[in-house]
Amino acid sequence: MPWIESALSNLKDFPLVFIPLFVAMDPLGLLPFVVGILDPLAGSRRGAVIRKAILTGAGVGLVVLALGRAIFNVRGIQISDFLIAGGAILFIVSLRNLVSASEERPTAPDEFLGMVPIGTPLLVGPATISMLIVLTGLHPFWLVLAGFLLNMALAWVVLAQAERIQGFLGIGGLRAFSKVASLLLAAIAVQLMRRGITQIWPVQ
Q: pTM score, two decimals?
């Protein structure tokens, strides 16, 4: 059937959706921060905070996905415009992550920690939102949705096993992973900007 053939054809592009979103969300890089937040909480309260974080991040991402296509119809905005703007935002975020060594802990009440800052802006923040908007202009909606939901499921597993993963990799290993992910995000950002520029001004 034609639609099955089309779906299978698009499925080969799944890594092009999943990997940029994974790099933008960087759940492993968040672990030192998240462990510091969860450390004073009892086991049941930790689980509740993690569930709220995942639900908040998923909710924000789904709203962005729902509006993604409509955004391109506002004031004649083209995908090339978003490639450049989104790439610039991603580059700034990645640069900030590369040079920042701050790990300030929030002072929000426990019941809000899952929503802010873990769910958003840490898990689904400017980098992830920009990436989702850009990807909806480059790939089929269902493919981006599948990539996002799989990343959220993976983030849930990572956060639920935060202490074990941190114990295995160590603080240094997690920070190193985060820096590599930020560097990768910067490279993806440059690629997006280059792609947008060449769409506006094709290379002869």
A: 0.83
